[in-house]
Design brief:
By secondary structure, the protein is of the alpha+beta class. It has one domain. Helix content is 32%, strand content 23%. It has a three-stranded antiparallel β-sheet with strand order 1-3-2. Helix 1 packs across helix 2. The chain is globular and about 60 Å long.
């Protein structure tokens, strides 16, 4: 598989892992990297932000809100994503490098 598949009902990403002694050892690493790529593809449209003025150099509410949205997106990817397929490129067919583990991770689209 050279191209990440596109589906109408879910979004997907591919992650890789550097060569490992045993091919099975690369699967968790490749899945984690795929989930990290999946987080990058998700955009959140924030309709409103509550801003509170704070004195004495304290952190303001706007920064906390953005941080909470980012945390929610990451948590959703971890909870909703599924590894659809792993593959081990022993001969370097997909890239010039050999013995790379790949993972395809998908999650349902939320409207």
């Amino acid at each position: 598989m050279r191209i990440t598949p596109k589906y109408k009902d879910r979004i997907c990403a591919v992650g890789t892992c550097e060569p490992t002694f045993y091919p099975e050892e690369g699967k968790p690493c490749a899945a984690d990297n795929a989930r990290a790529e999946l987080v990058k593809t998700i955009s959140v449209d924030v309709k409103s932000i509550m801003v509170e003025e704070v004195k004495n150099d304290r952190q303001n509410i706007e920064e906390v809100t953005v941080s909470q949205v980012s945390s929610w997106v990451s948590e959703s990817v971890l909870n909703e994503s599924v590894v659809e397929k792993y593959w081990y490129d022993k001969e370097g067919v997909v890239s010039p490098r050999k013995k790379i583990t790949y993972a395809l991770v998908c999650m349902p689209k939320i409207k």
